[in-house]
Amino acid sequence: MSRLWKALLMVGLGVLLVRGPAAGQTNLELGSGIAVGSHTGTAAGLDIAPAPSFQALILRQMKPGLSVYGGYVRTAFGCTEGFCLDRDLTVVGNHVALGVEMRRGSPGLRLGLLFGSTEVGTEGESPDAGPGLHAGGGFTIGSGRVRFLPGVSYRWLSADTPSSSDHAVALSLDLGVRIRLGSTESVP
Prior knowledge:
Largest sheet: 8 strands, antiparallel, barrel
Radius of gyration: 17 Å
Number of strands: 8
Strand order of the largest sheet: 1-2-3-4-5-6-7-8
Helix content: under 10%
Distance between the termini: 35 Å
Oligomer: single chain
Strand content: over 45%
């Protein structure tokens, strides 16, 4: 089992085991989006070449309006300029995520840390694992056990290799679905 999958498993179990003094709801969130971005190593600047990104998160409510989350985030965007000119390359980041979500009614904000690797294409040096940041905002549509979450996100991703120190930045339009896994009753 790779280090990324082991870390993802530990984060997911940790979020599920967190006990909150309030409702203690546990939710599964699956989301997808279209991201654009830039990668410093390609000298491309902000490339408007969207590619699909997705995430799978487990959220645990700590108190009304505050949840912790953990899970897997895949960020991808195309690269068509700079060193990517005339090459069909995609920048892909695979990361474990851990963070907090603050939600007041329908609008919500999210801030978290990422850990994983980011690479351009499949050629060249293997990427080093490194840190990243995730910030996002959006709205909740619907009520009951299933809710829809349109939003936007910003991700800063370490993209280091053994011979270079790079990073990538991605902006994404997202649509997710959140499914309540447990009851809404208080957890002792």
